[in-house]
Amino acid sequence: MKTTMQEKLTISTLIDMREEAEKMEKDLEIICTRKQLGDLLSDTEVTSADYNVVRALVRGDISTFMGVTFHIKTPPPLERGKITVDIAEDSD
């Protein structure tokens, strides 16, 4: 199951999404931004051990956390007077 994150990324959100994927017997892959991974670092539920793993995720050293595979989406360059919207479709 592949999903694009449109909200703040938290441990609670990851747990809920992972539970849904497990019910459907699917692996979970999330497309998110570096900002959203940064939000995860500031989540008060992230333990000190988790913090180091999430920090490595933000740096791109690893691509999985809590059994979830992350794909970091780099936003397109901004163009003056133009807004670009990119919506990823579920590949399943």
Question: Would you write up a description of this structure?
Answer:
- By secondary structure, the protein is α/β, with parallel strands linked by helices.
- It has one domain.
- The protein has three helices and four strands, in the order E-H-E-H-H-E-E.
- Strands 1-2-4-3 form a four-stranded mixed beta sheet.
- Helix 2 (34-41) runs antiparallel to helix 3.
- The model is unreliable at 84-89 (pLDDT under 50).
Topology diagram in text:
Elements: E1 2-4, H1 11-23, E2 29-32, H2 34-41, H3 48-59, E3 64-65, E4 68-72
- Number of helical elements: 3
Count of domains: 1
- The amount of beta strand, in percent, is 15-25%
Q: Can you count the beta strands?
A: 4
Mean pLDDT across the residues is 75
- The shape, in one word, is globular
Helix content: 25-40%
Distance from N terminus to C terminus (CA atoms, Å) equals 6 Å
Q: Over the alpha carbons, how many angstroms does the gyration radius reach?
A: 14 Å
Characterize the biggest β-sheet: 4 strands, mixed
Strand order of the largest sheet: 1-2-4-3
Class from helix and strand fractions: alpha/beta
Q: H/E series, N to C?
A: EHEHHEE
Task: Report low-confidence residues grouped into runs of 5 or more.
Answer: 84-89
